[in-house]
Records
---
Amino acid sequence: MRRFAVICLSLALLAGCEPEDREVTVTERRALTLWDRSYPLDLRDRAPLSWRRIPATMMRIHNFRFGEDGAGEVYVSVTSETDPLSNVNRWRRQFGKEPVTIDEVATEEVLGTTAWVVELTGDYTPGMGRAPREGMAMRGAVAVLPGRTVTVKMVGPAELTAGRGEEFLDYCKNLEFHDVASLSRTESS
């Protein structure tokens, strides 16, 4: 009985002990990320909160839906294609538009280089066996880098994509390669 009382008294005393105060110094702050130092093809993005990230596919390393019913989509592809005009004119054909020359395409700086940017509206024929869709809009950007080309495409019903031009460009301009040295390794290979 005495042993039991000693054990109970010891537990009561220990339960009343509080850990001593420790001082913590914050030396840096950082934003939360979906992937921490694990970026598909080394390409880091910062998507708006209104875009819902969905799984990547074989050709889409970053893939999003937006709008209440997910009718809008944004995706990023990285290919070895080096002719920006082939992407621009393929997108134009998907909207029934005539091809253009590279000098007729608007430009913005993306990934530290010139990106060709297009905006299209009308009836959209996406290809790959998918049915044409009326009243659509698309924004696309093509940036050619050593050894790779990055394309970003936003497509959806025109009323859903209206007013999202700055959002699209901000997304494109915030793309960055995590390991910049990988570009020079690709170029020299």
---
Amino acid sequence: MSSPIFGSESSRFRATKREASKLEGELRVEKWRQEREGLPLPELRDVTIAEYGERWLRESASRLKVRTLWSYTGLFRLHVAPAFAQMKVAQLHRSHVKRLLVDKHELGLSKDTIRLIRATISAIYAAAIDDGVALINPATLPRRGKALGRSPKSDIRPLSELELSAFLMTAQKVDSAYYAFFLLLARGS
């Protein structure tokens, strides 16, 4: 039997031995990953952020302090759920979180409130990763130093002996109390 779209039955599924071995290997790796990491519960596969967040709040009630739960609940229902209500948990990306935080900043919310909104999303996604619903936590933003390709510690450079000597002599001329303090800092560590 032949079809203009698929060709004959015998030619439809023709693959080389190498392609078949590669596919078999990929399937084994995927099966191993699923066995190791576990599959998400069937009811969580297509869950929205609003649904998962409410579920997480209910499940977290017994292990969080009352004030923390109250804070997470308010921040989630007032800021997170309205912004991402119909989005699936697995679809949220860092760019969405950044945009939400920028929008909240532009609305005049304090830095602390914005930080707590991000912490709420991060806590929810930590549980989502444990449940196998999400692969990454979109609220963990990369550090600026790493984003620039350098570590923050690379900017720290101690004074050389010559520089330290010149600094201490200047401090001694200005005020001997400063000299003693700076000498203690330089030699004490």
---
Amino acid sequence: MAVKLRLRRMGKKKQPIYKIVAADVRSPRDGRFLESIGLYNPLTNPHTVDLKEDRVLYWLSNGAQPTKTVKSLLRQNGITLKNELIKRGVAEDKIESEVSEWKKDKEAKAEAKAKKKKISRKAKAKQEAPEESSNTENVAASEESQTKEESIDESAAEVKGATSEENEPAKE
């Protein structure tokens, strides 16, 4: 009998909650299942996943194949990593240290992402808008002053009867 780890939809209309179950491949999505091994709520922010880790590892070791979504959920919780380390025959204490290190890295990445998200797009736009307008005004003012200086230098050179090439060595 082929077993899959998959989602079983529950909850009200427009408010899905999923049970993660071990079920026979031939049974329908919301039909008969062998064992309930977890719960997944996609409506919370961030989504909630509660798993019976030992039962998930049991089913994976017995050949159960997770669906794409369940595989993604297992990967997010570090169970896939733990299963791979068990398959390789790594010692139990080393497995625990690897998984805890992975979780710390994941939390650090989540915190960094949260810090970046803190500054909203509107705040960024407000910060950039005054800088851009002041920068464009400064650039325009400096260009105008440069063109005025060049026109003054050229008119002075014409008055003296010298070309602009002759005027440049005199400045040095």
